[in-house]
Design brief:
Helix content: 10-25%
CATH architecture: Roll
Oligomer: single chain
Shape: globular
CATH class: Mainly Beta
Amino acid sequence: MGVDAGRRLQRRLLALGLTPGTRLWLVSNVGGPAIVAVRTTRLALGREVARRVWVVPEEDGR
C-alpha cells in the first residue's frame, strides 16, 4: 500500500494507520466514500483521497 499525495495528506493518512506495507481490505466502494478496514478499524475515505491510495493485491487473495 502506498499513497500518491502531497505531504499534508500523506501525514494525515499515516496518522490514520495507512502506512506503506500495511494490509487493508476494501469493505465498500458503492457510492459515497470508500470504506476500508485497516488493522482493527474501518475508515471512510472520500473519493479523491481513495484515488490517491494504491495497493498491490496479495497473490493468494487473503
